[in-house]
Amino acid sequence: MPQTRPIPTDQPEDDAPGSDPAGGATITPYRDGPLIVRGQFRLVDQDGAEIDPGRETVALCRCGKSGIKPFCDGTHKRAGFSAPSAPSRPRPAARILRAGRPEEVR
Ligand code: FES
């Protein structure tokens, strides 16, 4: 019987910390890498057409260099893509919403 081996990848395991136990989706920007989407989600193009992710956890490219966009193919490593996992500063709208004054957004 032929043996199957996992394809080497830098993507996290499906049961990695960060999975949403409430049944929603969790999107995790990985340092110097893709956006990992776990949980219940639908992936659609801008016209609303369904994109089959082919698996329950997907890596979406955020470096712009993947040959299989919107999915990550690992090219970010060769391209030297660099980005933090967390934002270095909050977006202005996030600060306003946290302050509880969304009506002030114009
Ligand atoms: S983030 Fe991996 S190829 Fe772009």
TrEMBL record:
**Gene3D superfamilies named in the record:** CDGSH iron-sulfur domain, mitoNEET-type
Question: Which Pfam family, giving just one, matches this sequence?
Answer: zf-CDGSH
Asked whether the keyword Iron is assigned, the reply is yes
UniProtKB keywords: 2Fe-2S, Iron, Iron-sulfur, Metal-binding
What are the start and end residues of every segment in region (Disordered)? 1-33, 75-106
The terms under GO molecular function for this entry are:
2 iron, 2 sulfur cluster binding; metal ion binding
**Keyword Iron-sulfur among UniProt keywords:** yes
GO CC terms in record: cytoplasm
Q: Which domain of life is it from?
A: Bacteria
The residue ranges of the Iron-binding zinc finger CDGSH type domain are 47-82
Biased composition range(s): Low complexity: 82-99
Q: Please give the InterPro entries that the UniProt record associates with this protein.
A: FeS-contain_CDGSH-typ (IPR018967), MitoNEET_CISD (IPR042216)
The name this protein goes by in its record? Zn-finger domain of CDGSH type-containing protein
What's the source species for this entry? Geodermatophilus ruber
